Amino acid sequence: MTKWLTKPLKTGFMAVAALVMLNSCAVVATGAAAVGISSVTDPRTIGSQLDDQTIEMKANAKLGNDEQLGDYRLRVVSYDQQVLLIGQVPNDGMRQRAEEVIADTNGIERIFNQVRVSSQAGLSVQSNDAWITSQVKLKLAANEQVSASDIKVVTENSEVFLLGIVGRASAEIAVNIARNVKGVSRVVKAFKAPR
């Protein structure tokens, strides 16, 4: 093969290889975006974020498919394999059952059972919860003493739950910020200490 033909072939192969690699990156990025991964701002690794989403999908499906619990509004939120279980049920037996149903979900390290024995939260309560969550997030983002991206905020029936991997000082600041948002009835921290 002549020398002038070899150089274009090498260049062509390199271009094809680069295109394949870029397409692979795009597929990974697209896949991560499709499942809600926010690795740029999230202190968890991408693997940990995927683990948390898998835990949430499996545990929420178990609750929804359970004959006794399927009609209740229960929700699982996972952060670094620490699971927050929230919602409302009519009695303590159902509250305990909710935890038992998800307990064997692969990957869960700890369950914070915060299910309340009360009537179901209506749409107006859920709408107010979304507003409270947005206000807490805004105030955390405006505070220079805490990293808002390290804290996940979940509101259920005016109770604010804070999850994340933060130190004691940051945890207390975050709790005080959330406590002072209008409409918050209680703040519950479910933080994990940094390693």
From TrEMBL:
Pfam families referenced in this protein's UniProt entry, alphabetically: BON (PF04972)
Record-given protein name: Osmotically-inducible protein OsmY
InterPro entries cross-referenced by the UniProt entry: BON_dom, Lipoprotein_DolP, Transpt-assoc_nodulatn_dom_bac
Transmembrane segments: none
Start and end residues of each BON domain: 51-119, 128-195
Signal peptide segment: 1-29
Keyword tags: Signal
Keyword Signal found: yes
Family matches, as PROSITE patterns: BON (PS50914)
